[in-house]
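Teaching assistant's notes for section 4

Start the section by putting this record on the projector. Ask students to predict, before seeing the second block, whether Protein GAMETE EXPRESSED 1 will look compact or extended. Collect guesses on the board.
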Amino acid sequence: MLSSLVHCRSTLQYFAEYGHRQHEELIQREEQIKGFHDRLMENSKSILSSQESFESKQASMFVVLDRIFSLQNALLLESRMIKAFFVYSILIFVIFMLTSTKQTYNIRPFLYIELFATFFMEVLIIRLTSDSIEHQTWIINMARLFFLVAASVQLLHAICTYKDYEILNHQMLLTLMNSVNSMQKQKELSWDLDTDYEDWSQWIDADLPDDVNCLDDPDYILPEEVAENSITASKSYNLRSRHLYQ
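Reveal the predicted structure now:
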């Protein structure tokens, strides 16, 4: 009986010591877990701070990317504007060369007006619309194609319906001059046929008086110097003779 009590006591003491050791181990484990938890909290706080710093850096990176994209869009817009200006400058020169002839000179202002309207519409499409670049490019190409077709039709119409009024006026003037010359020739021919021939030699002989020599001119006045020389000379000369027309 005593031995059983001793055995029970030793057993209880063993369990008590075992429970005490387990309790101490549990307390140590709790302290370890608490330390782990504290370290975990510190690590999570550091992770959160790192995440916050990463988010701020990411936000600043997004701002920089937005600025880069806006700068890229501005550069793309300016490059498209420069390209459009270059293309329309070439078109202005081409229109000037095509309308340098008489047949197409009159439609030059209309072509320039249409070209400037197309350029203005293209600038509005590039700057004001928010469509994609592909859609804007399609609209711009259609506008340019429409202008080229309209300009070609106007040039062909001007060439086919051109009338050189200078040449027409020259031809009309030549025709009128030929008509006038032919009428004048017919009039002169009829006048020559209707006019009788007149003997001018008889009129000259009849006009002179009878007492005047036919070789002398009664209306002729001899100069004084010539008269004096003719008096002093041994022989007088007839200074002016009149030829008879037979």
